[in-house]
Amino acid sequence: MTEKLIKSRYDASREEIATLLGDAPKYRLDQVWQGLYTEFQEPLGITTVSKDLRTRLDEALPSSLVPVTSSVSDRGDTTKFLWQLANGGHKIESVLMHYADRATVCVSTQAGCAMACGFCATGQAGFTRQLTSGEIVEQVVHAARTSAARDQRLANVVFMGMGEPLANEEAVWQAVTRIHEAIGISARHLTISTVGIIPGINTLADRPLPVNLAVSLHAARNELRNELVPINKRYPIEDLMQACRKYLAKKNRRISFEWALIKDVNDTPRDARELAKLCKSLKPSAHVNLIPLNPTPGYLTKGTAPEDVREFAMQLEDLGVNATVRRNRGTDIAAACGQLAAGQPVTLSSRSVVG
Ligand code: SAH
Predict the structure, then answer these.
(1) How far is ligand 1, taken at its centre, from the CA of residue 183, in Å?
(2) 3 lies in a domain?
(3) Catalytic, out of 117, 120, 279, 337
């Protein structure tokens, strides 16, 4: 070892690990890199290298995430992991979902979130700090290791956990690159979800990999969206659609809109018509993911009833727009969309007080 690394295990670059290995032959670096990124090993488990080297790597490349608890739901098919950040002690969560033939992990990109969407538990708790790319990648590696233990391949990564990915675009992009190049998950299996940060969408459009873009729309007119997704006051719908059009033109990928259905707020025939119009203003038309609103402590307005969710989906189909109703995973362990708060206290939004 020639120098002590101050970076965490998955923040360290290949060059930095090479420096740690000193004059060891080049294949040693490959062994260590593969151990970390394709075998999902802890340094002490990389048995292709000597015990002495393993011990030194373990000291030099500390993990960035300390496990606190994990909660299991859906008969073992959904697991929520609560982590403490080794640097600073803040808490974050990630959610691993197993399907018949593959697994998907939903990762956090910030501790907390500054976007203040009143119906989202992360938004209710406020912002703490940005995550580093290594802290994001380590959530993915841990999920891949857990999946491998049940003979399942981690196939998809969705940046839909705590935080706003495009308010931490640089670190998120570094994580995307590492997940793509070192772990080997292709861009079409990576999805970044955004509240609609236009400069972030523009930067993403100029990045080399065509990752999927999901936009958390929730309302198709500014008056209502200003209320549900406050950042809309800075980045209104017309400008957001323009940024989406630019992204589509560059990436040749379909965009999806997320829509959490809130009873009597955004689930009326008028909302379906306005949403359909926005979807069809994009080419190809946007796909809609309908999420029945999940309960959160700070928002008392109810979600749309299941039969009305189906009705809303049918109205969209009749208007020529494809919509999928998301199956809610892990609501009993507060692991579903918008429920991740990592145990933080929340504040009541104004709508929840009047609603
Ligand atoms: N900040 C990013 C990433 C979070 S993704 C974004 O907003 O896209 C989490 C998704 O769950 C977003 O679409 C968010 O709007 C949605 N969501 C938040 N609270 C929810 C709730 N209570 N019920 C259902 N979906 C919710």
Answers:
(1) 26
(2) no
(3) 337
pLDDT tens readout for residues 246-293? 999 999 889 999 999 999 999 999 999 999 999 999 999 999 999 999
Which residues does 93 contact at the CB level (< 8 Å), separation at least 6? 80, 81, 82, 83, 108, 161, 162, 335, 340, 342
Q: Are residues 54 and 190 in the same domain?
A: no
Total domains present in the chain: 2
Whether residue 62 is preceded by a cis peptide bond, meaning omega within 30 degrees of 0, is no
161, 93 Cβ separation under 8 angstroms? yes
Residue 296 beta carbon below 6 angstroms from any ligand 1 atom: yes
The per-residue pLDDT for range 284-330, each reduced to its tens digit, is 999 999 999 999 999 999 999 999 999 999 999 999 999 999 988 89
Whole-structure pTM value: 0.95
In a domain? residue 283: yes
| Closest ligand 1 atom to Cα of 195 | 7
Same domain, 30 and 99: no
Question: Are 140 and 288 part of one and the same domain?
Answer: yes
Strands 78-85 and 91-98, by their bridges, are antiparallel
